[in-house]
Amino acid sequence: MPYDIVIVGGGPAKVDPMKRETSVPGIYASGDLTTRMQAAIISAAAGMHAAAMINVDLMMELT
Ligand SMILES: Cc1cc2nc3c(=O)[nH]c(=O)nc-3n(C[C@H](O)[C@H](O)[C@H](O)COP(=O)(O)OP(=O)(O)OC[C@H]3O[C@@H](n4cnc5c(N)ncnc54)[C@H](O)[C@@H]3O)c2cc1C
Predict the structure, then answer these.
(1) Residues 14-59: pLDDT tens digits?
(2) Does ligand 1 come within 6 angstroms of the Cβ of 39?
(3) Distance between CA atoms of 57 and 39, rounded to whole angstroms?
(4) Is residue 43 within 6 Å of ligand 1 at its C-beta?
């Protein structure tokens, strides 16, 4: 399923909700860029989610 990156203006950037990856492979997004529910704890959680998924992808590359 394609996800678009909104660079300037418009709504939040779209990411795969499971991986937090954008339509560009290897580019992940989180925080205010990806939601209208702007709050520090939500951004921090999304950032941790993205970091965990990046780690998974890196581990998959090694195996
Ligand atoms: C006035 C105000 C009050 C708020 N009060 C609260 C509150 O009480 N409680 C709460 O939970 N949330 C509050 N928020 C929301 C909270 O601050 C944000 O949801 C949170 O900081 C988002 O974190 P983020 O990492 O997604 O983005 P940000 O914290 O905005 O971090 C993005 C970073 O990217 C940098 N950047 C931007 N463009 C580029 C570029 N091209 N290259 C390199 N770096 C770039 C910016 O300089 C910035 O440091 C408030 C927001 C505002 C504006």
Answers:
(1) 899 999 998 888 999 999 999 989 999 999 999 999 999 999 999 9
(2) yes
(3) 27
(4) yes
